[in-house]
Design brief:
Blueprint lengths: L2 H8 L1 E5 L2 E6 L6 H4 L8 H12 L3 E4 L11 H13 L5 E4 L8 H4 L5 E4 L1 E4 L2 E4 L12 E4 L4 E7 L2 E6 L1 E4 L2 E3 L10 E2 H4 L11 E5 L5 E6 L8 E2 L4
Parallel strand pairs: 2-3, 3-4, 4-5, 7-8, 8-12, 9-13
Antiparallel strand pairs: 1-2, 6-7, 9-10, 11-12, 11-14, 14-15, 15-16
Length: 228
Amino acid sequence: MDFSGEFQRLSLEVETESGRALLMADPHIGFELSRGLRIRTRFEEHLAAFILEKDPDILIILGDVKEPIGLGFTMKRLLMGFFSDIREVPTVITRGNHDGRIEEVTTKFPAVEVVDHLLIGDILFLHGHTKLPGSDFKEAYLGHIHPAYTFKSNGVGRKVKVLLRVGRFLVLPSVNPFIEGFDVREGIRMVPFLKNSEWGDIFLSDGTYLGRVRFEGGGSSPIDKTQK
């Protein structure tokens, strides 16, 4: 697998008042532990190498750094290795619903900060599983729902990870190439402040506009390419 190419495709670089930010969502390090896999993908090592290669002014991880809800010995070891590899990179984690007890590891690394949300200028960064903070912002980036869309042709479906735009909110796919993702029409219901949205625009990671998806009514709604 071309890990660097996959990470490039599933992350974003954003110019902020704090410099060039490398933005990624939902790594779910240790996913092998929760899925019964007996192989070591070394995903977190490849991800750390990519981060070092990009050399951002700040790394922002939009929550769910780890997969297991708890923090067992093996999970702690994987996280220690990951953060040791990127220890020189200023890193902010917007806490996700899988990130319980993560401070037991991150406090050992002065460059890593864990927050509920991050506001840089007028840009808001958060995971997306809780209500919005009371901050004023023009644009927000979040993760949590692992957006994907299933394209069907001749009775065959193919699920593709996508970026989802709903108004001033942009939802990133999971940066983990081993995680397939959820159909946007189902996932949107998991975001408290977006669950009543009717429409969303979906894009490939290269910015190609795929069309507008109607959330209301669930999985039967097709892409409408006539609206923006």
